[in-house]
């Protein structure tokens, strides 16, 4: 795929006026208050993976509507803590998979929770285990148009609430330092991490890789790749629902959450990515931490990559970056790093 979006020099300063609903804050405050009326009800069951350097637990906690959300919790064996933690969210269509698949964060000294995404887990990977018990009106196959007629019924209202409750859940665990909980994810997972970063003001760090669900209307208008093409396919049938559809999507747009976030952030973007166009990622990055002031933020640019982004290269960068800010078992953080730098991929 050739370069198709704005030139990098323009992307670096691209800060579009992305409309948001006047009741955005009230909508999410009400949503989270309702969710938190139920106990987070964390349940752990030790899993024998055959691995000796990490401990793994099958996790269930109460998400949106008190619905049970599954996950895997992995931690360094024999480390009493208090340890920093990373909550990881997953890409579109994937599930939590198998308990031995994601070991990097525990190996680096963190408690690691990977959250299953409700209703997903059958498009790639090794499967998911969390149903979505809430239905929706007419929708195009996929998840992005579920509940598109009403923001209160939209699928991602439930998912983002699950993401916040995952942070709540980790903070209740023995051996976790509740002040050092970071959130991370790739694609859809990056979009969820960005939303949680905007909704939970005291998360310690946010790491969205090639994030989905940012500057959504532009994405729908410039790419025909899924998942954004689900919206255009839906609107090709529901021709008179355009403004209502984008109004609903404005309640889940990552740019709005980025404006409200303030934790240190490490983004990544790929300039040949047709799934999450680079201008949509830069829209969120350039708005991140505004108007509160300058944020400790970096973005890693991968000029010749598509939606795979930096993959293992980016994970290595994250481990070093987060270690400098949060420390690991028995370590102190080095303090904040550079603010607002664009780091070229290599």
UniProtKB/TrEMBL annotation:
Q: Can you say what this protein is called? A: Cephalosporin-C deacetylase
The residues forming a coiled coil are none
- Locate the active site: 187, 273, 307
Among the Pfam families in the record, one is AXE1
Which InterPro entries is this protein grouped with? Answer: AB_hydrolase_fold, AXE1_dom, CE7
The Acetyl xylan esterase domain extends over 1-322
A GO term for molecular function? carboxylic ester hydrolase activity
The species this protein belongs to is Georgenia soli
Single Gene Ontology BP annotation: polysaccharide metabolic process
Write out the residues that bind substrate.
Answer: 92
């Amino acid at each position: 795929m050739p370069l198709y979006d704005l030139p990098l020099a323009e992307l670096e300063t691209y800060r579009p006026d992305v409309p948001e609903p006047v009741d955005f804050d009230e909508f999410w405050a009400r949503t989270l208050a309702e969710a938190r009326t139920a106990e987070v009800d964390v349940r752990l069951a030790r899993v024998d993976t055959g691995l000796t350097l990490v401990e793994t637990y099958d996790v269930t906690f109460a998400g949106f509507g008190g619905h049970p959300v599954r996950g895997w919790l992995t931690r360094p064996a024999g480390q009493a803590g208090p340890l920093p933690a990373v909550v990881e969210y997953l890409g579109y269509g994937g599930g939590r998979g198998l308990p031995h698949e994601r070991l990097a964060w525990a190996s680096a000294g963190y408690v690691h929770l990977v959250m299953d995404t409700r209703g997903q887990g059958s498009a790639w990977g090794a499967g998911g285990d969390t149903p979505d018990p809430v239905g929706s009106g007419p929708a195009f196959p996929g998840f992005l148009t579920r509940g598109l007629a009403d923001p209160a019924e939209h699928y991602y209202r439930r998912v983002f609430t699950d993401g916040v409750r995952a942070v709540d859940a980790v903070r209740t665990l023995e051996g976790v330092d509740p002040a050092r909980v970071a959130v991370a994810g790739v694609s859809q997972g990056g979009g969820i991490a960005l939303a949680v970063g905007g909704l939970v003001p005291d998360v310690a760090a946010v790491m969205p890789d090639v994030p989905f669900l940012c500057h959504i209307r532009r994405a729908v208008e410039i790419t025909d790749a899924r998942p954004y093409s689900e919206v255009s396919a839906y609107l090709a049938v529901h021709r008179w629902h355009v403004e209502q559809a984008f109004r609903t999507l404005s309640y889940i747009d990552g740019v709005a959450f980025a404006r409200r976030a303030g934790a240190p952030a490490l983004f990544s973007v790929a300039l040949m990515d047709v799934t999450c166009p680079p201008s949509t990622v830069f829209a969120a990055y350039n708005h991140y931490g505004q108007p509160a002031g300058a944020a400790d933020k970096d973005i890693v640019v991968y000029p010749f990559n598509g939606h795979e982004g930096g993959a293992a290269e980016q994970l290595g960068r994250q481990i070093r970056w987060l270690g400098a800010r949060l420390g690991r078992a028995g370590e102190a953080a080095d303090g904040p790093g550079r603010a607002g730098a664009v780091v070229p991929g290599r």
